[in-house]
Amino acid sequence: QAQINPHFLYNTLDSIQWMCEQGKNEDAIKMIGALARLFRISISRGHELIPIRDELRHAESYLVIQSYRYRDRFAYSFEIDESLLDCLCNKITLQPIIENAIYHGINGLVDEGEIRISCRADGDDILFTVEDNGTGMEPEQVQAILRKERSDHTGIGIKNVNDRLKIYFGPAYGITIDSVPDEGTRVYIRMPKVREEAEYEKR
Fold first, then answer.
1. For the segment 54-82, what is each residue's pLDDT rounded down to a tens digit?
2. Residue 44, by phi and psi: left (phi above 0), alpha (psi -120 to 50) or beta?
3. Which residue has the higher pLDDT, 46 or 20?
4. Which residues contact 20 (CB under 8 A, 6 or more apart)?
5. Could you give the CA distance from residue 144 to residue 42 in angstroms, rounded to a whole number?
6. What is the DSSP letter of 103?
7. pLDDT of 11-26, one tens digit each?
8. Within a 10 A sphere around the Cβ of 118, how many other Cβ atoms?
9. Cβ-contact 47, 92 below 8 angstroms
10. Which pTM was predicted?
11. N- or C-end of the chain: fewer Cβ atoms within 10 A?
């Protein structure tokens, strides 16, 4: 399992310390809570698959932390089919995609960025979409991201997520990226509907 990058942890704790010094105690409490949830779901008692509701909670905790660190730089929203919340997905699937949207898309914008996360049924599959209005990427950049083993920031690369999806569910599943320079990026994450982890436990 990939671990949270020490630099990400250091920067987050540095932000919390600054909040405490400035008397922003409520903000510090929210940030500590988000960091605790991030670690708790990362551990998830050794299970590779977790309920989608927990994966979304993990993604939102990450966004809470980054929203404080990049104050007023971006907004985010979720559009979720609630009938899918009890289905299972690979843990730490969304956060590396959101991280990429922030660091490589939103971070280069002059105006406020926007990140939209959706989860819907597509036949017998589940389709997550992470969309941003950032700087976009050339095809070569997309391919480089899909080949990169680790992220510079939290340590978990998109390649890692894609590989885990394919290993666990098969070659029909995984990540596809549509990106247009200066317009934004849309990342699709496809996986089957799974209700019980036993269906996909390694024999």
1. 999 999 999 999 988 888 789 999 999 99
2. left
3. 20
4. 28
5. 26
6. I
7. 889 999 999 999 999 9
8. 14
9. no
10. 0.86
11. C
